[in-house]
Write a sequence for this structure.
């Protein structure tokens, strides 16, 4: 038997019992609805004032306004000074980065054709050797059943870091070759 069938066989509720309960009422003694709204300000009355659109251009009339304007000017001057210092620091950092770039390019220019070829060959041997070693270690882990995504991700991270270093090194070699020709 279902719950509905069992409930239908029991005694019937009266209309009062079946009705939802009334929401609670707050009773404030001695206050009518007209008294509670009498103190509200009507926004349509002329007592509400607005600021004219040319308020900022009007003459200073009080000491408070003069102090506020002085503070605003001080804040603006400080902001301009901070912007100027930040621009100077940025230009200085760019200049130092260019000097370091130039120094590294000059070092590769002094290698000549034979030296740069040897650097390229050494990089190739190092990359192939690193790849072989990582592959050998991965095969050993796989053979023992311990190769996981963590190990594979670590190996790929090492290869990515070495690849990034190689690309930077190759860029300087390419720049040096371009200048020497």
């Amino acid at each position: 038997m279902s719950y509905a069938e069992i409930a239908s066989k029991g005694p019937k509720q009266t209309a009062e019992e079946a009705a939802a309960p009334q929401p609670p009422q707050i009773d404030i003694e001695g206050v009518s609805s007209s008294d509670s709204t009498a103190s509200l300000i009507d926004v349509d009355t002329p007592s509400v004032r607005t600021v004219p659109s040319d308020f900022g251009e009007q003459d200073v009339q009080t000491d408070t306004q003069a102090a506020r304007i002085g503070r605003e000017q001080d804040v603006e001057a400080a902001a301009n000074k901070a912007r100027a210092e930040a621009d100077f620091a940025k230009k200085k950092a760019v200049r130092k980065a260019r000097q370091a770039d130039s120094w590294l390019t000059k070092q590769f220019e002094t290698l000549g054709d034979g030296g740069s070829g040897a650097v390229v060959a050494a990089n190739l041997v190092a990359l192939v050797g690193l790849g072989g070693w990582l592959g050998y270690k991965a095969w050993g882990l796989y053979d023992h059943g311990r190769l996981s995504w963590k190990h594979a991700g670590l190996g790929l991270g090492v290869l990515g870091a070495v690849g990034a270093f190689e690309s930077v090194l190759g860029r300087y070699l390419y720049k040096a070759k371009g200048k020497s020709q």
In short: The chain has a mean pLDDT of 81.
